Amino acid sequence: MVSAPAPTPSVLRRLLQAAGYHLEDLPGATVAVRAVDHRAVAIVPRGRSPAEVEPLFPPDSVHRTIVYDGEPGDPARESAAQHGIELLDPSTLGPALGEILLPSALVPGVEPAGVEEAPLEGPFPPVAAGARTVRPRIDRREAQAIAGLPGARYTLRLVPFYVAAYRVRAPALAGGAGAVHRRLVAVNATSRRAETWDEGVRELVSDVDGPAERLAPQLTESGAKPLALEAIRRRHTVRVDHTEQHAGAIVVESRRVPPAVEDVRLGPFSLIFVPYWYAETAEGRRVLDAVSGRGAADVDARAE
Questions:
Q1: What is the 3-state secondary structure (H, E, C) of 7-46?
Q2: CA 172 to CA 178: how far, in whole Å?
């Protein structure tokens, strides 16, 4: 398995902007802030201490990351740990890039407990006829920089997904009615892999610019529904600890409790196509999400 190298500074800036960050160039630093989940990234040269960089982050930052252009050294790592700051360098940025670019689980998508469930709307706003393709944000040049496979052949493939909006009432740790979560569920129509998405991350267009290979679905909509329900219940399973005392000993029993099937409301499916870059060589291949730049696995049936 080839590890992904760190992107160049210019590519990193474009990736952050495509992921919804607002970039501000300051003396000796670039600070990228994403308002939707209060994540902040500071890009600084080696030699500036985390304590010196910390005031550059907004006060309401939830997750703070410093990206150095070289090895920062043990004192900087110890300082970052003391200030609760994630520290990355060229050797660790590549594997962590997907987490930085994708929206955090803190993105608003939860309704207070006890909210009455209204009928679901479609998973996306009304779009023009045929607009069922997710617009890629990573172009070929950026995919080459992220994958780092010399001599590889790069192909943009559009992978079919059945996507639906859902609402689910998660189990409450203390009993009673839990909070209602709103998200999207997406079932890969070739690999049968199901996952949940945050709303508003992907933009639908009628087609992509340039050549792309559009894969055919290998799964029917009726076959997607049980996979979607399983993914939703797995995503919103909670761990419940039950404590009892027996003969002076305290016994803690932990159980994982998924939402009941009747607590899931699933909207109608839409078939959309999601772009992925395939970097293929004689030794193997690397697949990148063309929206986030994050490495992907099990994207199509041929990956299995």
A1: CCHHHHHHHHHHCCCEEEEECCEEEEEECCCCEEEEEECC
A2: 4
Query: What pLDDT digit, counting tens, does each position of 216-258 carry?
Result: 999 999 999 999 999 999 998 887 665 566 666 666 567 788 8
Q: Which single residue is written with the structure tokens 């469930």? A: 117
As a whole number of angstroms, the distance between CA 22 and CA 126 comes to: 28
Sorted by where each starts, the structural domains of the chain and their CATH numbers stand as 9-101 (3.40.1350), 110-303 (no CATH)
List b or e across 158-179, with b for residues whose CB sees 16 or more CB atoms inside 10 angstroms. bbbbbbbbbbbbbbeeeeeebb
Alpha carbons 244 and 45: distance in angstroms, whole number: 54
For residue 22, the one-letter residue type is: H
Distances (CA, A) of 56 to 37, 66, 75: 17, 11, 20
Encode pLDDT of 23-50 as tens digits. 999 888 999 998 777 789 999 998 889 9
184 close to 164: Cβ distance less than 8 angstroms: yes
Q: Which amino acid is at 12?
A: L
The C-alpha R_g of the chain, in whole angstroms, comes to 22
How many Å apart are CA 27 and CA 258, to the nearest integer? Answer: 50
Distance between CA atoms of residues 285 and 279, nearest Å: 5
Q: For residue range 89-127, list pLDDT tens digits in order.
A: 888 887 778 778 876 433 444 544 444 444 444 445 445
| Amino acid at residue number 183 | R
Nearest to 190 by CA among 229, 220, 145, 153: 220
**Could you give the CA distance from residue 195 to residue 202 in angstroms, rounded to a whole number?**
14
What is the structure's pLDDT at 39?
87
